[in-house]
Design brief:
It is found in: Cell membrane. The chain contains 9 helices and 11 strands. By secondary structure, it is α/β, with parallel strands linked by helices. The strands form 3 sheets. Strands 7-8-9-3-10-11 form a 6-stranded mixed β-sheet, with helices on both faces. A 3-stranded antiparallel β-sheet has the order 2-1-4, with no helix packed on it. The structure holds adenosine-5'-triphosphate (ATP).
């Protein structure tokens, strides 16, 4: 993303946002509530368009990359699903891809098989989260956007999701995630971009950014409350 600007309802949300997420790397987009992280992901996945600026995915315009099926998205929240059950949903999503992951092992890996009989609208928040994650991964994406992937997960599931995200990176997938958990960013991320007021104010590897203190201290000194 290069020099993206976006104004919504008269407020400038993205103010010259520039960053890159590279293949085989986990890139964390950090920032205070309202800084524009979800808006950025929505722009990178074709759900919104910046007013000006350039976004390329695999060197292509976003729409072409999305249409190619090479991009997976785990939104922060999805609309209320109907009475469909988790495995039915995953089989349906798998059917939309040319070479999907097998549903059963993915469901087992994320513990989805344990609530397979519950309709989606009755899932707990954490169960909905891991189902969203499975939906993002089912098509074997080469780039995946994860908007707060572990929010609301218990420590067991959180660790399992961390391991899975690490494996994706090791398999060459480009992972872009947002999180408010600094320990998550420190544990997972190769590259970190800290946003404030719709632009990137600090970038680097975790080790580069934390030479003088932990990531939370860097975050607190680089941003202000309500960074929108
Ligand atoms: N469709 C919209 N119309 C108007 N304003 C919007 C719209 N979508 C987002 N905003 C505003 O844009 C700003 C950035 O929102 P965004 O969801 O991108 O922030 P965020 O960094 O993801 O925040 P959080 O960490 O709380 O999830 C907020 O002030 C929000 O109210």
């Amino acid at each position: 993303m290069r020099d993206a600007h976006l104004t919504l309802d008269g407020t400038e949300i993205l103010r010259g946002l520039t960053f890159a997420a590279r293949p085989g790397r986990i890139t964390a987009l950090l920032g205070p509530n309202g800084a524009g992280k979800t808006t950025t992901i929505r722009c990178c996945t074709g759900l919104m368009s910046p007013d000006t600026g350039v976004i390329e995915v695999f060197g292509q315009p976003v729409a072409d990359a999305i249409a190619s099926g090479r991009v997976g998205v785990m939104p922060q929240a999805v609309g209320q699903w109907s009475g469909i059950r988790p495995l039915e949903l995953l089989h349906h999503l798998a059917g939309l891809h040319q070479n999907p992951l097998p549903v059963a092992p993915l469901a087992e890996r994320l513990g989805i098989d344990r609530f397979a009989r519950t309709t989606c609208r009755r899932l707990s928040g954490g169960q909905q989260q891991v189902l969203n994650l499975a939906g993002a991964l089912i098509g074997r994406p080469e780039m995946v956007h994860l908007d707060e992937p572990t929010t609301g997960l218990d420590p067991h599931l959180r660790r399992q999701v961390w391991a899975l995200i690490g494996e994706l990176r090791d398999a060459g997938v480009s992972v872009l995630l947002t999180t408010h958990a600094m320990d998550e960013a420190e544990h997972l991320a190769d590259d970190v971009h800290i946003m404030n007021h719709g632009r990137v104010v600090r970038s680097g590897s975790v080790s580069d950014l934390t030479t003088d203190g932990d990531l939370e201290s860097v975050f607190l000194t680089s941003t202000d409350a309500g960074g929108a």
